[in-house]
């Protein structure tokens, strides 16, 4: 039952309940267009080589090693077996440490996603009990697992028939909001402008549909490659007609918002626009 592209195999442990599981990345960039680095004159592929910074000699793969610089110019060479000596239980076990409400963890702290499934038929029952119990209590587990030789805290969440593992960042990996937003002034916007912007948002509301998210850049790259292969001469793309000019005269926020509403309404079918207008028409107060 393990996924064909599994990247980790071990056990999921919750208190005294344990089951064999396998994990695989939930996201992939396999279908993106990739390029090789070539010699422009010959068209041959280039090969990367490692050069000794002092002698200038080429260093073959078998002679390379990782090193930690503990003082200027002084390194400790670290071999693969040195990492193997770090015997963390999380190398083979996802041990759930605690549970939190399912919406408690801020997106800012999340990283990569992985699918977790039972690794054999025997594990299905225990796996299903853990998954359904989390779904029923609307909670996610917090655990640790070693991925690519590094231990990460992870979020363990029920998802459909399986479990989604999401890596969490350590505090030193997350910048504070104060540092991130320090250039934003504390000026309060005009309430009239905020209300009009809310109307713009309501006009643009829709349902999430991942199938609509076309990778326009990938599509354009494929067309460009096809055109070049056919010998077509490519011309620079014209500037976007609606691109804001650097020195364009600034209109009032209220006027810009009103224009936004009008523009969004024009994009929608007439029947839908009328329906929205009737539903959101302001009620006039009697004198």
UniProtKB/TrEMBL annotation:
SMART domains in the cross-refs: Ku78 (SM00559)
InterPro entries associated with the record: DNA_bd_Ku70/Ku80, Prok_Ku, SPOC-like_C_dom_sf
Subunit structure comment from the entry: Homodimer. Interacts with LigD.
Keyword Ribonucleoprotein attributed: no
Ku domain residues: 56-186
Stored NCBIfam families: Ku_bact
Pfam families attached to this UniProt entry: Ku
Protein name, per record: Non-homologous end joining protein Ku
Compositionally biased spans, kind Basic and acidic residues: 261-275
Entry's family note: Belongs to the prokaryotic Ku family.
Annotated spans, Disordered: 228-248, 261-287
Function: With LigD forms a non-homologous end joining (NHEJ) DNA repair enzyme, which repairs dsDNA breaks with reduced fidelity. Binds linear dsDNA with 5'- and 3'- overhangs but not closed circular dsDNA nor ssDNA. Recruits and stimulates the ligase activity of LigD.
Domain of life: Bacteria
Coiled-coil annotated spans: none
Source organism per UniProt: Flaviflagellibacter deserti
Keywords, sorted A to Z: DNA damage, DNA recombination, DNA repair, DNA-binding
Compositional bias (Basic residues): 276-287
